Amino acid sequence: MVLNVLEGMRWGEAQLLAEKIDNARFDADMLLAEILKVSRDKLYFERERTLSKEEERVFKNWIARRSEHEPLQYILKCQEFMGLTFYVDEGVLIPRADSETLVETWLRIVRDEEQQGQEEKIKVADLCTGSGALAISMAYYCPKAEVVGTDISSRALEVARQNAVSIGVEVNWREGDFVAPIRGERWDWIISNPPYVKKADYLQCAPEIFREPAIAFLGGQDGLEFYRRLAGEARTLLKLDGKILLEIGWDQGNDVCNIFQEQGFTTHVYPDLAGRDRVILAR
């Protein structure tokens, strides 16, 4: 059966609803819009257009994949973050809007320091960089930042390099486990969205989460493993006035603050747009 655009939108939504996919209409529309190379809001203007056999084939294939809980972003191969478009695939964590709080907080602090006369270049290390969303966004919006992005996954770094080229920024990519690639240097900033999900919580996640790399989520039994590792080495990695900015889970503010305070750091927690703890500053 050959569908027109409106029939395709309705059919796709029905298929996804039958599999209990959240945001079924939105996802069906986005998939069809990508195939037709139009924005979602233009679909209704094209509603009577008949899909070609190839367009219909691809659409049905993509709906089948989404019905099996493959994330929409992996099918479309892209995700928006900080106003920039990033390529994503199964080798990297999908950037979330929550993580924009980290970049926005960092930019605000850096700009406040500029107003106080601190204009020199700053050395920034982004640990567990994944798709490179944090590192690339910082380099894009703050040209004076000399950014290094690290990850244990060579596949993730391939994606990050591709994104840096397509967005047009320079980032130094290094492969290795957590802080290993930045040892022996002193940094103005260490930034990270580390794995921070408790193992028990991870097992309760939506099916889509299990399509993403588990290593990007699991932070040990209590979700705090990577914060402890970083806090234990941070003094040897930072300049005297160096700072650390980290994403945290909404219920981890007190625990992460305590971890860094025990190492002699002062801390401050910043909320996301929903008012939940999201970012911790340690200095």
TrEMBL record:
GO terms for molecular function: nucleic acid binding; peptide chain release factor N(5)-glutamine methyltransferase activity. Residues 120-211 form the Methyltransferase small domain. CDD domains: AdoMet_MTases. Its EC number is 2.1.1.297. Coiled coil: none annotated. Substrate binds at N193, P194, P195, Y196. Belongs to the protein N5-glutamine methyltransferase family. PrmC subfamily. This is Release factor glutamine methyltransferase. It comes from Desulfosporosinus acidiphilus (strain DSM 22704 / JCM 16185 / SJ4).
